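About this split. The held-out portion is used to measure sequence recovery: a designer receives only the structure tokens and must propose an amino acid at every position. Recovery is the fraction of positions where the proposal matches the reference. Here is one held-out target exactly as it appears in the evaluation file.
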């Protein structure tokens, strides 16, 4: 993640993610699902600023009034976890500029939590290794460890076992962000376990080879059917993206966002323009974004 260190304060840019492949392999005794997923960072960023507070207390401010800034917020949970585990007596004043849509399957909250661990470890000079920070993150959410292995990784277990993979070239995406959100737990509850799970070997190989056409044709998400059973517009929205003939289109994570994989930036711009009037009627938002985890010059996705 990009981090700007000013000594007693710093700013970090937390990217979104998309799942190019997500298969459910089974249900575990702890209530979680065993999965295999191919995740890529998406260049759409929340911006978090931290200022040291030697008193040991935390204060979080956010530009979105609909996001809780109380102790349940993952940013504060991550901050407290690092403080407790390292025995560090310091606190922080935190400002969050939220750009990653919420309840969208883009892991904005998880990315913010990972960014918090990285930023506070630096600010407080607690000196943890990335692997130690990632395993603290895993205690807070299954998607958090991925953000220590950007920009692309193959994730297994409940999502917390991360194997970084090479992204041969960036992918040009069109994101379609519905006005409705979907809750992760609710979607997982509706999942039907496959008898013969997809392996994802083809799409993984294609991503490593930079073969966009095959990546697009092999996009897969087992949670899409479950999400559609809760909100049928998920499928309708994917079909709308597919009408524009991108290399492929899918839902990300547990939804509700969808994305199209395009062959180049021009195609992404064309598709975004083509679906814009329809999306407006649906009160959905359309964004063009590339895969990747570093903002150009700190402009961070505006
Ligand atoms: O780990 P995280 O807090 O992101 O998970 C949110 C919810 O999603 C869990 O409470 C669980 O219901 C579901 N989940 C799951 N299997 C996973 C990841 C998440 O069932 N591998």
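Reference sequence for scoring:
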């Amino acid at each position: 993640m990009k981090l700007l260190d000013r000594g007693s304060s710093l700013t970090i840019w937390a990217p979104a993610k998309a799942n190019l492949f997500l298969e459910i392999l089974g249900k575990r005794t702890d209530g979680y699902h065993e999965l295999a997923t191919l995740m890529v960072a998406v260049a759409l960023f929340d911006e978090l600023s931290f200022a040291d507070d030697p008193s040991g207390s935390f204060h979080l401010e956010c530009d979105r009034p609909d996001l809780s800034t109380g102790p349940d917020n993952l940013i504060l949970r991550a901050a407290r976890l690092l403080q407790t585990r390292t025995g560090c007596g310091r606190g922080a004043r935190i400002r969050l500029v939220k750009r990653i849509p919420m309840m969208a399957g883009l892991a904005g909250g998880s990315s913010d939590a990972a960014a918090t661990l990285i930023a506070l470890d630096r600010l407080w000079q607690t000196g943890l290794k990335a692997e130690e920070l990632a395993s603290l993150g895993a205690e807070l959410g299954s998607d958090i460890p991925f953000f220590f292995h950007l920009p692309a990784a193959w994730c297994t277990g409940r999502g917390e076992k991360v194997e970084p993979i090479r992204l041969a070239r960036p992918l040009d995406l069109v994101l379609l962000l519905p006005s409705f959100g979907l809750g992760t737990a609710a979607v997982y509850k509706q999942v039907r376990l496959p008898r013969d799970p997809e392996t994802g070997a083809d799409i993984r190989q294609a991503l490593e080879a930079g073969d966009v056409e095959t990546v697009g044709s092999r996009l897969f998400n087992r949670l899409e059917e479950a999400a559609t059973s809760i909100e049928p517009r998920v499928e309708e929205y994917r079909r709308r993206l597919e009408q524009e003939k991108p290399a492929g289109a899918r839902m990300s994570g547990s939804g509700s966002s969808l994305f199209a994989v395009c062959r180049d930036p021009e195609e992404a711009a064309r598709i975004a323009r083509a679906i814009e009037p329809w999306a407006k009627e649906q009160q959905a938002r359309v964004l063009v974004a590339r895969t990747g985890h570093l903002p150009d010059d700190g402009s961070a996705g505006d």
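Annotator remark: DSSP finds nine helices and twelve strands in the chain.
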